[in-house]
Amino acid sequence: MESFKVMNADAFGDWLREQNVTRNITRVQLHHTYQPDYAAWNGIPDAVYWQNSMRNYHVNTNGWADIAQQFTICPNGEIVTGRSLNSAPAGITGANTGAVCIEILGNFDRGGDAMTDAQKDAAVTAAAELLKRFGLGTDDVTYHAWWSAGGAALGDYIPGRSGKTCPGTAFFGGNTRAAYEANLKPLIQGYMDGNGGLTMTQYEELKALIAAKDAETAALSARAEAMEAEIKQLKTPMIYNYIDDNMPMWAHEAVSWCVENGIIIGTGEGLGLDDKDLRLCQIIYRLHK
């Protein structure tokens, strides 16, 4: 069994590129430890201590050859190595061949631990660097919850069929595929596309800025539509069906004369005159007076 190495997220990519991995890697598994959780970590905030504790349990209680996972990510953002990258993990029945297993220390079911930003950033970094190192994409990430206890691929978290809720029902917004697509996947992709991507704080600030801009755009669009409606109403010609208060006073006498002399003949709906008609009536009236 290998000795453990602890590193921060910034050093992980360089360390990973130096490793000689002969096994064919096809997916990255994401888990939460459930136990130890944040209460345990806060009592003993030591990455190697908890990695040894998990190895002892996996070997002496579960009877496995080594600790289950290749990496554990701690609440302080440290990444600690575990099982050799050249050995399949003991992470998900039916999905261990070709996999690298990442355990994120804590209980991320609803009502459990609130993941620190440092741990979130390290989780994104570790997943993205592994995908880059082995020529994989964000669709090659899998959650334990997307598999049955017997090792059947479900493709999503399905209560009653999934073997576990792991990595937690509140993990980056949830353990469903939709939650992954909406929350964690864009962060991993952003890291892979850029120079390290955004930190969680930057990501949340960017989301808030985008939401504010969207709201501003929506308000401007609504105002533009209202103004367009007002302009359209102004452009609509005024129709005068009767000689009443709606018709300009200056036109009353001329229109009355035109009606009395049969020049204007109304219908059952009224006279149907617009402003041009009123001016024409005024001209005709003056010519005949």
TrEMBL record:
CDD domains to which the protein is assigned, alphabetical: PGRP
Coiled-coil ranges per UniProt: none
Domain of life of the native organism: Bacteria
One BP annotation, GO: peptidoglycan catabolic process
Molecular function in Gene Ontology: N-acetylmuramoyl-L-alanine amidase activity
Residue span(s) of domain N-acetylmuramoyl-L-alanine amidase: 23-168
Protein name according to UniProt: N-acetylmuramoyl-L-alanine amidase
Organism: Candidatus Ornithomonoglobus merdipullorum
Taxonomic lineage of the native organism: Bacteria, Bacillati, Bacillota, Clostridia, Candidatus Ornithomonoglobus
